[in-house]
Amino acid sequence: MPENKKQLIRLIKLVAELKENRYPNCHSFAEKLRKSDIDGNMNVSCKAKTIQRDIRTLKDDFDAPIEFDFRNNGFYLAHHGWNFVCPSLQDEDMMASVFGAKVAEDIFPEPVKSQIRKAVDTQLAGSNPDFLDTAFIKTLIVASGAKTEIDPRIFSTVFSAWQGRRAIDIGYRAPDGSMSRRRVEPHVLTYFNNAWYIKGYCLKSNATRIFAVHRITSAEITEKSFEPDRKIIDSVIEGDVFDYGKVKDVEIWLAPESANYARERKLRKGEKLAFDKDGSAVLHLPEAVPGEIIKLVLSEFGNAKLLKPAELASQIAKIADDIAGMHRL
Fold first, then answer.
1. 72 closest CA partner among 26, 10, 24, 39
2. What residue numbers bound the domain in which 130 lies?
3. Distance (Å, rounded) from C-alpha 87 to C-alpha 42?
4. 8 Å CB contact between 305 and 252
5. Is residue 82 part of a domain?
6. Is residue 178 part of a domain?
7. What is the residue-level pLDDT of the chain in tens, covering all 329 positions?
């Protein structure tokens, strides 16, 4: 059994890594904990040998079906039906659980929304944390904008197929209104730009495809199972949900008011913001999706200018001319 709270937190994080098929090993997970200490001051870092003992604890005390995959150089769960029944959480851990559930509730459609609420209510039933105040919890609002409407039965089927790693037969209505039938392996279920998508392997086209869940008209789980494709998963983790082509070495001049806004938001990996004396700045992106750059420049109402690449700058100029022409009286 866990000897202290620090070990319990490590076990919870380790189980999450295993459940998410991240193939942690003793050294990689110890490094992740070290970064957690640096970024979040969590005080959970330890040596690789300690992680080895934690894995033994999960196997011996909690009957965890943990095996080692040499191809992925990490541990995994032989079957995902196993659940980690851990001791009761303290108030701060319970608060994180309740707040996390509140955020999930505001994003997930039914029936998963109700399932999340029920799970947290069950968790709270055995305790009475001092921090919990219903009115206070309601003031945590996820303002994600307008959400697409999804049939609860469709989402439930898609969610279960993704969770159980089963292919699904779907009816799909494309943006142009055309209908098709497909068998899809849902490797990733992701919430992006206020809509839910599955990214996986389409057996009809024999290629990776993306499907908006709100465009699925029917869904049925099949007996065909699959193993999650790490390349597909990593592409979404890295932000390439739609596999758009990218341009490299992008530079955008920002006027002072736009530069100040850019300073306040979290920079993406490799992104740099260089300020000038007048308060303006040049934003450098190692790579970016052309459509996103076009939207960014046009949405700044003249406070942003694309410096390079020149080809994309010319494209923005043409779009601006076309817009101006449409609005001339």
1. 24
2. 91-138
3. 19
4. yes
5. no
6. yes
7. 455 667 888 888 898 888 888 899 999 999 888 887 765 556 778 899 999 999 999 999 889 999 999 988 999 998 877 888 765 545 556 666 666 776 776 778 888 877 776 666 665 554 545 545 554 555 555 555 566 788 999 999 999 999 899 999 999 999 899 999 999 999 999 888 778 999 999 999 999 999 999 999 999 999 999 998 888 888 787 666 776 678 899 999 999 989 888 887 755 668 899 999 999 999 999 988 888 899 889 999 899 999 999 999 999 999 999 998 898 87
> Which DSSP string corresponds to 125-171?
HT---TT--HHHHHT------------HHHHHHHHHHHHHTEEEEEE
* CA separation for the pair 256, 224 (Å, rounded): 56
**Separation of alpha carbons 41 and 35, rounded Å:** 9
CA nearest neighbour of 21 among 162, 158, 120, 155: 162
Tell me the sheet residues that pair with 206.
none
Q: How many domains in the chain?
A: 4
CA distance 148 to 196: 8
**CA–CA distance, 227 with 247 (Å, rounded to integer):** 32
212: three-class secondary structure by DSSP:
strand
* This prediction's pTM: 0.54
In the numeric block, the tokens 């319970």 are attached to 94
Domain CATH code at residue 265: 3.30.70
Please tell me whether residues 164 and 227 are part of one structural domain.
Answer: yes
